[in-house]
Specification:
Distance between the termini: 22 Å
CATH class of the largest domain: Alpha Beta
Structural class: alpha/beta
CATH superfamily of the largest domain: Nitrogenase molybdenum iron protein domain
Strand content: 15-25%
Oligomer: single chain
CATH architecture of the largest domain: 3-Layer(aba) Sandwich
Order of helices and strands: EHEEEHEEHEHEHHEEHEEHEHHHHEHH
Radius of gyration: 21 Å
Number of helices: 14
Number of strands: 14
Helix content: 25-40%
Number of domains: 2
Length: 322
């Protein structure tokens, strides 16, 4: 079986945006600091999963337990505000944060460590939604997860919104414009790739995602044609468990694969080995070299930051020869 591996080329680019205060009456006070200028330019209202949340001031100490938000802060040059994150599972693109304080995992926060950092803001994802009330007792806590049913638009809005909190809206919008252009280009040719099946391998088992689910944006937002319309939002987070025979029966023209074990550093049979069998090898995807192993960390752990979203779209474009 011939396979292709598309490695995500994530380039963290810090963009600087100069803020100039103008006054017709007098020059700015000499005592005004750069941080005061940023605060004046910042939009202190964040749109979260739970609605709008107003922050009292521009945060100077932020704990980030959402890699998408960490990716966005990194992309707009605000790494200096991050005082804590989940350091043990950092993807390669965010290894520069390995030396900040470890505050647990993306699913199990270390409340004591977080409290000890005295943060101004805590950013979480859906993985920690149930622990939000406890975290709120430490500092304002916001869930900035994207909307799986409106993924690309919500990803872009979340990124600009978060960057605006630090006066970096223009830097984020520039990156969003690049993402939008890349998505538009991909959307114009994705349908020509034929029936596509999105598969996750974990512990030797397979699951698939269709329109409306966790990775439904591949079909809903980016125009790929699903080989499995039955795998819908009913299996939104964990997907629909499938067999090799199921893949053979659907006979996709293209397989997009995530190796969850590789993403979380778990030992186990690699996805390439799991799918290397006579049934899968008989599909059009395998026979025509259309099995693509996506960058697992980007898709499973991050997915949604400014840098990673662009790299994910680039992976998909490369998968269909774009």
């Amino acid at each position: 079986m011939r396979i292709r591996r598309i490695c995500a080329a994530v380039v963290a680019t810090a963009a600087a945006f100069a803020l100039t205060a103008c006054s017709s009456a007098a020059a700015p006070s000499e005592s005004a600091s750069p941080s005061q200028g940023a605060a004046a330019a910042a939009d202190l209202t964040l749109t979260t999963v739970d609605g709008e949340r107003t922050i009292d001031a521009v945060p100077e100490r932020v704990v980030v337990l959402d890699y998408a938000s960490l990716d966005t802060l990194n992309a707009v040059g605000k790494s200096d505000v991050v005082v804590g994150t989940a350091t043990k599972s950092l993807p390669e693109s965010l290894k520069s944060y390995a030396d900040v304080e470890n505050v647990g995992t993306l699913k199990e926060p270390d409340f004591e460590a977080i409290a000890g950092l005295d943060p101004d803001l805590i950013i979480i994802s859906a993985r920690l939604a149930e622990q939000a009330p406890q975290l709120e007792e430490i500092a304002p806590t916001v869930n900035l997860s994207s909307d799986s049913k409106n993924w690309l638009e919500s990803v872009n809005e979340r990124a600009v919104d978060l960057a605006a909190l630090f006066g970096e809206e223009a830097a984020a919008q520039e990156r969003v414009d690049e993402i939008t252009a890349a998505a538009d280009e991909l959307r114009g040719k994705a349908g020509e790739a034929g029936k596509t099946m999105f598969v996750m391998s974990s512990g030797g088992k397979l699951s698939t995602y269709g329109p409306g689910g966790r990775y439904g944006f591949v079909f809903d937002d980016l125009g790929f044609v699903s080989a499995d319309e039955a795998a819908t939002a009913d299996e939104a987070r964990h997907g629909k468990e499938i067999s090799f025979e199921y893949i053979g029966d659907k006979n996709p023209a293209q397989l997009l694969v995530i190796d969850r074990d590789a993403a979380i550093g778990s030992e186990g049979q690699a996805a390439e080995q799991v799918l290397d069998n006579t049934i899968v090898n008989a599909t059009d995807a395998a026979k025509n070299d259309r099995i693509t192993y996506l960058d697992a960390a980007s898709w499973y752990l991050v997915g949604g930051g400014l840098d990673t979203t662009k790299s994910m779209i680039d992976e998909l474009s490369a998968a269909i020869g774009g």
